[in-house]
């Protein structure tokens, strides 16, 4: 942050040599003068607009929400993720250590006292600013842990430019204070301006922040990444409290038309979410304004050089509510010979995320055709790496394929399903989960897809549970989160806060059982098999697709003593000797 001010200072010094006294009385060139700008709440609104670009949304040719799990164990991109592989390096500069947005928020909060407008409007946009400061700082905490908390505009001689890092829990407490003030000032759903943050969105975000920090502190206790004297319980209680308030408030419900085979899928392929109660905040696209993306041409027609991992696929329960390891509906290896047999008798969400032969997709024009098989033998851009090709986000609307980069399917930014998951997990982590809690959270999600309820008296004990040291209940709640939020881009955050390196270290992600399957030998051209094992498709000793067999033979090299946090750039350590490097990056 100090670097920005130093650059400004040098620039002004150079200019001053050729300027008169009038120039010296002007406001710094990189900021808006409070005397000229902060007149009305419309000014506040316009200023806040710049911060909305921080939300992850569909954009351009390749940036779509369904790809944001490429940095986790849910997807297997053609090129492995450096962080999971343990191959990141300390950057010289950048690396996320940028404070520009926080500085801009601080400037707004310090200069709007004279704004004219109703108290409700002023408070609302002050609430937006505080929400975004919380958002930006939460990203810093997730990346770096301890960071300096700066809540006011700084000058080039401010001591805070050379401050030490504040403990992560101190920063999180400040984030929560910002969110509490935002919640108090923001207007409610229906009263806040459309497509903007409202009170309930801030509450949902608070539940996310508190659950993240609570589980981080709980599972990182005793490690270099933990917080001395804290087990995270206070944050877990706050997460359950605010999520419970949203649930009990009755303003939101899960999207459902009574079609368990498609309702989950159809949460993610709409161009207009204004009537979808589950979607709490979303981004709208408009061709006339030139605000579009290319999702409609990518999904489901291209593999986009990625694919669902076998680990994610195996997480989906059978339709009797039991894991595949103990369900009589799952017939082991015989069920893996085809995508159709794998998806049979499974949680319907599986075939609403993954393309299964027979799934309806849009062909040429407005013709609906059945999906045939994944694009295993194709160019890098178009191929599916695992055999489990992405279906989530696909639309049957011909307009979504009307031209290159002309798609307008909205981006879901916050949805009520996450609140339900946050509530159940926070209650379970504090040991206070009741059957009533399950029935108004996890079991609502299962009702939508026609799955059996999770019962406290009969939690399945999966012999292959992901977290062997934890209870069957915690495992099931984490499993539910994984399948409900698959390809939402949140999996890495979950792995980090759970200290779940056991799912990563030394493992190579696998795909479909290709050997002796109904796909083998079907990729031909002029009578020749386009798939050559060991050249453009790799199989492990059991016949499963093994994308990283050659590029990452020893599996992921994630270092649990280092890679839970990002390194601070060396240039920042030089500029501020008070900063210390994160563990393992010294």
Automatic annotation (TrEMBL):
InterPro entries: SusD-like_N (IPR033985), SusD_RagB_dom (IPR012944), TPR-like_helical_dom_sf (IPR011990). Keywords: Cell outer membrane, Membrane, Signal. Residues 1-18 form the signal peptide. Its main location: membrane. Residues 303-585 form the RagB/SusD domain. GO terms for cellular component: cell outer membrane. The keyword Phosphoprotein does not apply. Pfam families: SusD-like_3, SusD_RagB. It is found in: Cell outer membrane. Residues 99-211 form the SusD-like N-terminal domain. Belongs to the SusD family. This is RagB/SusD family nutrient uptake outer membrane protein.
